[in-house]
Amino acid sequence: MLFHKRLMAATVTLCAVVATVFAVDWTRRRLGDESTLTGWTLLIATGGLYLLTVRKRLIRHPLGPVSFWLQMHIYMGTFASIIFLMHIGWPVRGLFESLLAACFAIVAGSGILLGFLSRSTPRKLAAIERDFPLERIPVLQSAVARDAHQIALDSSNFGEGATLAEFYQRRLLPFFQLPRSLPYRLIPNGVKRRLLLRELNDLDRYLAQQGIASRQALVAMVKAKDDLDYHQALQFRLRLMVAFHISLTWTLALMIGVHVVLVYRFSGAL
Amino acid sequence: MEPASPKRDVTIPRPNPKSRWRCGFESVGMSCSAGPTEQGECCQVPARKSCAPGASGDCLHRCEGAANCEIAKLRPESRRLTNDDLGPCIPTKSAWFSRESIALNMAIFAGGILLCCMALPQREAVFLPGTLSKKHAQILGNELVTERCSLCHPNSHSLAGGANHGKAVTQDDLCINCHQTDLRDSVHRLPHDLTDAQLNRLQRDMSDTLKSSVNLINHTHAPQTQSTECASCHIEHQGAGHDLQAITNQRCQACHRSKFASFGNGHPEFEDFPYRTERKIAFDHRAHADKYFAQKSESFDCKRCHLDADNATSVGPIGRSVGFEKACAQCHSEPLRAAVSDGWALLQIPSIEIQDMQLAGLEQWPAGAQFGYDGPLTLPMRILLAADPQVVDALGHLPTSGQLADIDPKEPEQVAAAQTVAQGVRRLLAELAVEGQQAWHRRLTTVAVDALKRNLTSTDQELIGRMTMGLPPDLFRQIETEWFSASENLTAQRQLQRLAAQPVGFQDELLLDDSSQVETRLDDNSTSDFMAQKVITKPIEMPNINGRTHVTQGGWYLDQELLAVRYMPRGHADPLLAAWTEYVVLLTSSREKHHSQLELSNVGSKMIPGGCAECHLLSDSNSSVLVGDGMDRAWKSVARSDAVRPFTRFDHAPHLTLPMIRDCRYCHVLEEGHRLKDGEPENLATVLAQHRGSELTAMHATVRDHLHTEFRSMEKSQCNACHRPNGAGDGCTQCHNYHVGNAGFEWSRGTVTTP
Amino acid sequence: MTQEAVEIKRPDRWDHPLDATMTSETASWLLKQYPFSLMDQGRFAQNTSLQDVLRNDSRLIAFSAGDIVFREGQYGGSAYLVLGGTIRIFLSRLLSSDRKTQAGAWKQSNWRTGLKNLLWPRVITGDRRRRSRLVQRARVEKQNEGVELGYRGEGAETRVFLQDIPGVLSSHATSEIHPGELFGEMAAVTRTPREFTAAAETDCLVLEIRWQGLKLLKQDPAFRRLLDERYRSEVLRTHLRETPLFRFIPDEHLDQVIAATKLEQFGQLEWYAKYQQEANQLPSQRIASEPLIAEEGSYATGLWIIRGGFARLSRRQGVGHRTLAYLGKGQMYGLRELVHNRERGTNATPLPYQESLRAIGYVDVLWIPKQVVNEHVLPFIRAMDLPAPIPSPRYQFGQPVVDAPLELAEHSMETGLLEFLVDQRLMNGRQTMLIDTERCTRCDDCVRACATMHGGTPVFERRGPQYGRWMFAQACMHCEDPVCMIGCPTGAIHRDHESGLVKINESSCIGCKSCAESCPYDNIRMVTTKDHAGRMRVDEANGLPILQASKCDMCSSSTGRPACQTACPHDALVRIDMANIESVSRYVQRKAG
Predict the structure, then answer these.
(1) What is residue C388's DSSP assignment?
(2) What is the number of other CB atoms lying within 10 angstroms of the CB of residue B27?
(3) What is the pLDDT of residue C447?
(4) CB neighbours of B451 closer than 8 A, spacing ≥ 6?
């Protein structure tokens, strides 16, 4: 069912592209100006992309679910990107034109990337059994850090030596207190988690019962912290990508406007 | 959902992603039910002072209840924060709001940058969509920066430009402003710069094979012929290296629909290329190559006649001919001289029966012409007489040979005709004696007018002018006095003038005044025996003037023996002979043969001495689209010009550099002419031999036919040997022109009126 | 939000009496009437005297002949006491259009109208709105035969009345209600939809008592007695008629059934308090502590029919219990066993109950003894409607328990989720917000949309109980059994007549937090209120902000589906009726597969 919908939408997009290609060829044969044709097609398609934003603003009005508009956005975006490639001449000349092209390319690129991320990320997020709202994660992290710290402090009072405390000081403190490394934030993974857990388990041979208890507590803390970091990294990455995608929209609109005006003024019209 | 204890706090506000600012304490697990203000300052800046930490009801800042405390979930006993641990609340932007504001700020920033760029003097550099092509760049280089754009782009800078004036200035107009020299403003938008009428004519003239291979669109209605603009083919701002004239084949095939992959496969075959143009000189290449040059054992080198390095034209140094002097004189000047060795008798007083003179009212007819009907009625004389209405009919009754000797005295009307002609001659001479060149000119004009049945064009006038030019009037006075023994006083005058008038030599250009004559004479005959004697005492006695000796450099003189006015031509390209030949051709070329009396039908090439018409194919034909400007175009050896084939471009120069084809014969192959019965290849001489004496036009036609098949017309394959995609290139525009509306290209016979 | 505040008096109970025109005179006059005359005023607390109750929580309504008091399927928080004239209660379905109203919880509106409204926004005057509603009703009522409806009155006072009473009465089974009798209280107290239509036969005077008042009145034994004798007479008949199995039973047999039927309640109405305490026990303990209605392996003595609330259908598994399903309103327990035994005949040893039935919170059940079922019910049930005999019974007398693994039926969802739903009492929800965390990108568009719809502050939170990928967000579920209503002193929180949605009347909410605290799902929050100028309302007494309960209202103010669902770009969010296991499991499986 869903699959069929997608198939149909994809087919429509493809047809649109093919139709445009033929139209362009036809115009070329008529000694017409194909860049005007592609230009307007591109302009309309891009306008269509902005409809998603409009729909989101007009949430009060029953204009169909936003999910539908998002689908439309995606397919129309694909279409627009293809037309874009047809529209610009190779190589792109002129400072302004290049900037405009770059602008469009960035938005399109981030959009495509976003498409994949917004499919893959939720699955990863859902793998953690509890869901953390991004805004609350710092709180939880600090709480976990605090508790871990407490456990480490207490552990030195058991008279079982300061193994745990020392290990905490050496390995865990940075893990709990500092934010994760940039590579991790880009591609979150469980390497560090597994490493720390193994090292923690190895400590058992130096610990007695109480020590082991608090070691287990620390293990729980590590897991909790890592889960939090994982969520934070993933959600932040997604949100950043969205921001990136959106940040250029109005600039793009502005430049497109200037471009159109310039083209028509310099061709003598307007 | 975690278990909710009874004392959970239901007044904790829900996180609101819509709000622009988030409470600064959210990051430490506390939040405020009111939240920051729109401006992003903490709602409780004043209230916090009085806010007791941990107080339950009356403080808006509170820790979330243990039930919802995420910390509690992670570990049952966890320390709780109090307000003391906190600094002041510094609200943070919410993700949504920061996202929006970033987008907006970037747009504003970009807008600002753009505005700045527009303000800059070098704004063109910013908005320029690519650099101009080299040539344009050079032209615009010294323009003011601000005016560069507006030179090609109407109203590019000021809103006031173009559009809102009465007539909008299009970009094409601006192109034409500079290019009007080679493009006529009115037509440059039309396909090939040609009007519908012209295109129609072209299509009509197309051979069927071509028509079949090229599928032409309806150029009157097809959109691509209506809305053509310069920019639709010549696209600028493609970088300095870009060639504005490089047009893709697709452009051509927009109208020329017969699609073919390349020049090599599909392009229609050539038709009699490159020999369509009319031959002006009847030059038999084969005969010269095989016989004449062979006999003289000279190498027959094309370049000798065709390579004119001195005046290379737009289409290279190769010309139609380098001219008589360089090319032909070596062999042909002598025979020419010989042909006209003793001048040309334009007028000869016919001799008539003595007894007829009285009843014809002809007293004092020269004594030398009083013994029976005799003497020829020369062509010029006949033409001049034809202008005399009383004589015209008589001319008809004379024997066709034009020899009075053939008159049969038994035939009364022939005799009568002869007498009328005699009277005509008398009148003619008298007129000439009295009016001079004027009469001559008048008669020629009259004849021409009623021969052509139209008013004379300027070229015709000029032609007749050339025929009259240099005609000495006192020759005819002398005739009056000497031959028709006019009154005594005239004789007396003649005695006086004897000396001055004696040498009738240098009169082909204009009559010099006496003094100059004397000088010249002295200079000329410096070596003669006149020099020997100190002073001339007794009157010298003179022999009759003999053309060969006295008029070597050409000119008019009197033949006292045959009583004729003779003209001694001056070798090749004598203006008078040329003029007369043209005149005759002009008359004969007039279609309907109304002039039965004036027998021009059998005016052969020999009628005019020197036989100009044997080599110069004067009489024109309609086969060509082109027409020369006046007749003298036919004399000149025209340079190859793109006017001949406006749509095709060819430059010999690059081709001659290639050793393989440096020899012209690679492309220009002589046809094996069909042979005569005796196995001799038929050549021009034989053709002429057959047609000599027949009508001029007919003869020339035959000659043309003969010469037309002289060369084998070129094959496409010959070009295709080099002109292939990865070779010398085979784009349409490499050999074909689009803009043919340029000055060199004219349309023939006014059938197509060029706008 | 702007920070300057406006000071008002903190609202109080009875700030908004049911009828403002009610005077103390009328109240005192009522005191002399039956049954109030019998009541002992001493039993009532000082601040809520009987007279105040009558004055604030009740109102006098004069119905003219034919007026419809309430219609079957409507929700209403009021009971009615007849003071004069006769009221007719229709035991059989009067208007076929009723009950449908629940289905169409909100008015669906298509794209075109939406777009039109967007482009040409037009103010719908109250007048026009009323007319449009009338038209709509008229269309609906065309279908049902014989019953002609008319309208009288204006605006909110519009009354629907039956055109030709004698005709209608002759064609429907009805029962009379005479002065001094009470009706409609069951729906009011148990928060269930009306089970019958009531109309005035003659012109009559009726006292409407809202259930908050009713609760107070119940303190009096006399009044309670009055209540208890009510149900059997008319409600039960209608109710039984409603249940499909009993459709074809002739009246005389039905009378027998009614006579034998026992009406029982398990658990208590305020279950949520206990539930909250028990919340952090072990599941096995929790189940064990649930009031047992019928136990597996015990004699199948009769047929149980759920009237209200939920019951857990479970089986012993290992040391604990495994939930097979939860039974809601109208569902039965024990029918299979009874049928099976009847088929086997008397000589064979009868089968005991195969599963045990427990009350989840509060449940309201009917019990019909085995003999009555065999005699008066089963004979009249079409064979096709009867359940198949049990092929391999788990419990048989004199034989060991076969602890066979349970085969799950076609559309039954995985047990884990089922247990979870029941443990969390999520099956209660009729508009539960179900979020698929495997699709949700946490973009918070739903919350933002919600905020847009509700003046800048969202009325739900994108967090809550999670089972695997399924998150049950903290948005009001508009429960089948809305316990939040119980505590409300002013009736500000109520059920909508038409849609059955639970709504809060802002004008009468006094911010007492009782609903928020009694909501087991923490879906109601107390928020600071603002006036139209956007100023925060602050108590003039102590300058503290005035709070009001805020919760999801399914965006019923606007047309179309709720904003949260519309706004989700990834189809991750859905509002779904949990009471209907099939639909839920179908949705879950669709998403999974």
Answers:
(1) P
(2) 18
(3) 93
(4) B587, B590, B594, B595, B598
Quickly count: other Cβ atoms within 10 Å of residue A153's Cβ.
11
Using alpha carbons, list the distances in angstroms from residue A145 to A203, A226, B7, C43, C578. 20, 11, 27, 58, 39
Under the banding of pLDDT at 50, 70 and 90, the label for residue B521 is very low
SS3 B97: helix
Cβ–Cβ gap B4/C526 under 8 Å? no
DSSP-assigned letters across all residues of B175-237: HHHHHTTTS-TTTTTSGGG--HHHHHHHHHHS-HHHHHHS-B--TTT-HHHHS--GGGTS---
Return the number of other C-beta atoms located less than 10 Å from residue C402's C-beta.
10
Alpha carbon distance B360, C141 (integer Å): 139
Residues 217-236 of B with CB under 8 A from A: 223-224, 227-228, 231-233
Residues of C in contact with A70 (CB under 8 A): 569-570
Exposed, middle or buried, B575 (CB in 10 Å: 0-12/13-18/19+)?
middle
CB pairs under 8 A between A and C: 88
For position B316, what pLDDT does the model report?
66
> How far is the C-alpha of C140 from the C-alpha of C134, rounded, in Å?
10
Identify the closest residue of chain C to A61 by CA–CA distance: C114
Confidence check: pLDDT of A253 > 90: yes
CA distances from A49 to A54, A66, A249, B561, B648 (A): 9, 13, 10, 110, 52
Joined together, the tokens standing for residue C296 give: 């597996």
Instruction: Tell if the CB–CB gap between B103 and A136 is shorter than 8 Å.
Output: no
- Work out how many CB contacts closer than 8 A connect A with B: 141
Q: Each residue of B679-698: pLDDT tens digit? A: 666 777 777 777 766 677 77
Q: Cite the beta strand spans of B540-597 per DSSP E.
A: 555-559, 564-568
Number of CB atoms found within 10 A of residue C298's CB: 12
Nearest residue in B to A264, CA atom = B156
Rounded to an integer, what distance in angstroms lies between the CA atom of residue C309 and that of residue C288? Answer: 18
Whether A26 and C81 have beta carbons less than 8 Å apart is answered as: no
Residue labelled with tokens 């449940």: C363
Q: What is the pLDDT of residues A87-140, one digit of tens each?
A: 988 788 888 999 999 999 999 999 999 999 999 999 999 988 888 888 888 888
Closest CA to C574 of C405, C472, C434, C371: C434
The minimum CA-CA distance between C563 and chain A, rounded to whole Å, is 7
Residue B318 contacts residue B640 (beta carbons within 8 Å) = yes
pTM passes above 0.95: no
Cα–Cα distance for residue pair C544/B47, rounded to 1 Å: 11
ipTM attached to this prediction: 0.75
**Neighbour order of strands in the sheet with C466-467:** C466-467, C470-472, C432-436, C573-576
How far is it, in rounded angstroms, from Cα A56 to Cα C447? 12
Q: Does A264 touch chain B (CB under 8 A)?
A: no
C1, C461, C467: best to mutate for the B interface, most B CBs within 10 A? C1
Q: CA of B27: which chain A residue's CA is closest?
A: A139
Measure in Å the smallest separation between the Cα of B4 and chain C Cα atoms.
6
Chain B nearest-CA residue for A103: B110
Q: pLDDT tens, A209-243?
A: 888 888 899 999 999 999 999 999 999 999 999 99
Question: A40 CA to chain C: closest CA distance, Å?
Answer: 26
SS3 B88: coil
Q: What is the four-CA torsion angle of B509, B510, B514, B517, rounded to 10 degrees?
A: -10
A67 with C563: Cβ contact below 8 A: no
Q: What is the pLDDT of residues B190-230, one digit of tens each?
A: 777 777 777 777 777 777 776 766 666 666 666 666 667 78
Per CB-CB distance under 8 Å, the chain A contacts of B153 are 265-268
* Binding partners of B (≥3 Cβ pairs within 8 A): A, C
